[in-house]
Backbone:
């Protein structure tokens, strides 16, 4: 359910694009992202850092898109968001940035202990770094080499699909690690 909530601004962008154009869709994603942050705050009384980063970049790049009337700015936003996330996940392994892999901190807030070793957490974190780098590069390739409509479709279906595949694969990897550790311990 959280993944769907995270993708709601993108879905709103996609729908607006289908009925209007990239500029209307950009205005819609700006509004939807601000609403997403507000709704999350109203529900939890805290701001999700990932939503806040995304909202800030949507406001900057979406604002530039609307002010200059150049869609390239909004097309760069997914790459920059994903590469910032990759940098945050990468930096999280060092003591000055928390000393614990960011993926471990995020997953430990769910309340479900996974029982991964420190090495496994670092590997899982590295997988997220690689995922964010690859999806950011894929965004550049799609907006550089394909038309605008293809990029809009990729932004929703491609990125959401790749994220879902990655999350499911990550789930299998975690299960295999737990199974391997259980076998080794028993």
Residues:
């Amino acid at each position: 359910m959280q993944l769907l909530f995270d993708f709601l601004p993108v879905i709103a962008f996609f729908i607006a694009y289908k009925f209007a154009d990239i500029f209307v869709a950009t205005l819609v994603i700006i509004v939807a992202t601000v609403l997403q942050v507000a709704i999350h705050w109203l529900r939890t009384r805290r701001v999700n850092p990932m939503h806040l980063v995304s909202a800030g970049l949507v406001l900057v790049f979406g604002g530039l898109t609307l002010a200059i009337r150049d869609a390239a700015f909004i097309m760069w936003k997914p790459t920059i968001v994903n590469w910032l996330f990759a940098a945050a996940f990468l930096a999280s392994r060092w003591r000055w940035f928390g000393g614990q892999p960011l993926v471990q901190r995020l997953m430990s807030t769910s309340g479900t202990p996974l029982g991964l070793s420190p090495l496994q957490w670092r590997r899982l974190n590295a997988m997220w770094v690689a995922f964010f780098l690859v999806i950011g590069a894929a965004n550049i390739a799609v907006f550089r080499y394909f038309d605008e409509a293809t990029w809009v479709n990729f932004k929703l279906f491609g990125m959401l699909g790749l994220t879902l595949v990655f999350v499911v694969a990550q789930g299998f990897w975690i299960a295999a690690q737990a199974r391997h550790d259980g076998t080794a311990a028993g």
Summary: The two ends are 35 Å apart (CA to CA).
